[in-house]
Amino acid sequence: MAPNKPKTRTWYDVQMAIAAIAMSITLALWNLFAGPDRAQAAQNTADEALVIPPPIPTETPVVSPTPMPIVKIIFGSPGSSSSSQQTSGQPDVKKKRDDVGGGVAAAGGKSKGGGGKAKKGGGGGGGSTKSS
Amino acid sequence: MGSDILAVMDQDLDCAPEALTQVPGWFEEWEQTLSRFRADSELSRLNQTFDQPVPVSQTLWDVFETSQWAEAYSNGLVTPTVFDAMLEVGYDRDFDNLPRYQNHLMMFAPVIPQPLSIVIADDAARTLCLPEGLRLDFGGVAKGWAAHQAMQRLQEYGPALVNAGGDIAISAFADGSEWQVGVNNPFERGTDFESLYIKSGGVATSGIDRRRWLQGDRLRHHIIDPRTGEPVETNLLTVTIVAPDVMEAEAAAKAVMIMGADDGLAWVESNPHLAGILMVENGHALYSKKMQEYL
Known about the structure:
Chain A is an alpha+beta fold. Chain A contains 1 helix and 4 strands; from the N terminus they run H-E-E-E-E. Helices cover 36% and strands 18% of the residues of chain A.
């Protein structure tokens, strides 16, 4: 029927016009609010490019035990169940050995897992024991 | 072994210098047999062969037997099967070359060491058969053994003391004189906080004050607790043991480190032939009763 065709076509045109207007408004508002953020983002990128991250440490000194005075607790001392002495340095040397005939000969070195280091002992002593 | 070696003899002897010149050669030979850090060592070759008997030298066999003894003596706390646990915590090379800071990005998976009994040892054929994936690191046992061997060889010429990285083997003077041995202060490197006077036997110190590094954000050290596969969590910094021989001193020192101050001191006291100084991390040095004989 001839009168329907013009109404359908007109309503279609209206729908298209509304859609176009809505999209335009959306885009316009998007640019309106995104503009400042875009500028800030660009600025942030520029700032980050200027900051050089610190290098990952490859050799970091390991913390050694905190220095502190040593308190000796000797169990089974005569007259008491324990006794304590405080020392922060070398104790007095009680040389019991009869030092007859002079000193000692020594040879030293480093077993090879790494480098080498000659180490010579002095007279009378036998070196020290330490954790290794 | 990555340690300083010192051999001392009484210079009254005319032959002392010649005997001492042999010491470096001995240690080089033992290093070439026992080091896990040398790719061409006998131990490294053994650690690459699984599920088949491998003939081994007398040296490696002797150290293996010493390790068996040490494991039984310490109720499993001292064992050479910690090789892979060591690698997992980052101890994969000689300590002098070990980075003190290691990036560790992967998940840490502790490796629980297996008992040494799973190694098939044939005494008659002198062969060892490692099961798939098991590798050995003799560690301090080898060091103590080497010090003991060197002392015994030098002893043929006269009284001798051999110090291998803090494991000290001592032979006696005929007149009963004593050797003076310093005990290193872990809070002040290069100084001693105690002197011991010892006629013969062995002295050894185990500790976590020196061989330590960072793996990621975790502080690591080289004494593995076989019960966990991780560096032992202990309140002890160092343990010094005097024993009838240096191999027992070495095994005892490490075992006590793993036990901790209370259990460790009790264990030392329960073994009347041992004397110990246990340095707690708070600066308290606990002396066992027998240690007074050496002060």
